[in-house]
Amino acid sequence: MTTTPKKDNDTLVLYGQAFDSRLLLGTARYPSPDVLESAVRRARPAMLTASLRRQTAAAGSAGSAGGDNGFWDMLRALKVPVLPNTAGCHSAEEAIATAQMARELFDTPWIKLELIGDDYTLQPDTLNLVGAAERLVREGFHVLPYCTEDLVLCQRLVDVGCQAVMPWAAPIGTGRGPVNPYALRLLRERLTVPLLVDAGLGLPSHACQVMEWGYDGVLLNTAVALAQDPVAMAGAFADAVAAGRTAYLAGAMSAQEAAQPSTPVLGTPFWHHAQQQ
User: Fold this and answer.
1) What is the DSSP string of 177-232?
2) Which residues pair with 142 in a beta bridge?
3) Which residues of 11-44 are buried (b: 16+ CB within 10 A; e: fewer)?
């Protein structure tokens, strides 16, 4: 069973760096840059993920000077650490090259490693993900790998040096919530490194649930960006993550097979009647 951590100084620590929030937020698909900025300010996430390939492509098509369409300037102004990702990469070499470019652009060793194996489900390439992660770790990157909830895969990622792992709850963008609770809870019981649920959460209650299971954080994008009110939804998810963490630390009661009275019956007429039977 997972050991409940102490409440004192309860901060998310990844690769030795402490973060005040346990929510990471994506930056794609928002109605406008202003809405994205407001959502970030409301949620106050630990990090913001951004696709180097997507943004540089947009900048290039717009003909912006230096390949910058203003997106990066906005992220810097928010003063939230940026977590570049390798979204859209279908080979290990492509992902590694993207990570290297991101390190030069942002002057950061952080990288969210995405290596897609199936275009329909956007499921990670589980056969090549470990090798790519191992090479990036050797090159000094703080690798946060996006993966499935497969226990053996996650353990192999830890074995090659990943100090945190990010399994999905469901395929990216589906909003279905945890579709395999057994595997996710088993993963939390077996691994001691920080685990962040990445992809598939659609409701704040989903985020609260995985946090109650002992997960260390969540990464969201579509659930916030495509909400009717992204700013309000960003706040709802931030509150849910915090509530789930507090509930986990508090230690939930054990489920009971039968009803248990919430008020004592000792000394009441009902108790005397029961004793006479």
Assistant:
1) --S-HHHHHHHHHH--S-BEEES---SHHHHHHHHHTT--EEEESHHHHTSSSHHH
2) 110
3) ebebeeeebebbbbbbbbebeeeebbbbbbebbe
Q: Alpha-carbon distance 168 to 95, whole Å?
A: 19
* Assigned CATH for 12-253: 3.20.20.70
Question: Both tokens of residue 167?
Answer: 């399994």
For the stretch 146-202, pLDDT in tens is 999 999 999 999 999 999 999 999 999 899 999 999 999 999 999 999 999 999 999
Name the CA dihedral angle for 54, 57, 63, 66, rounded to a multiple of 10 degrees. 80
Do residues 219 and 198 make contact, with C-beta atoms less than 8 angstroms apart?
Answer: yes
Each residue's pLDDT tens digit, 16-32:
999 999 999 999 999 99
Phi, psi dihedral angles at 170 (to 5 degrees): -165, 170
Q: Is 233 helix (H, G, I), strand (E, B) or coil?
A: helix
DSSP string, 1-48: -PPPPPSTT--EEETTEEES-SEEEE-SS-S-HHHHHHHHHHH--SEE
Distance CA 8, CA 256 (A): 30
- Pair 114, 92: CB distance under 8 Å: no
Region class of 37: left (phi > 0), else alpha (psi between -120 and 50), else beta:
alpha
Q: Kindly list the catalytic residues.
A: 112
Cα→Cα distances 147→93, 150, 192, 209, 244, Å: 18, 8, 17, 19, 22
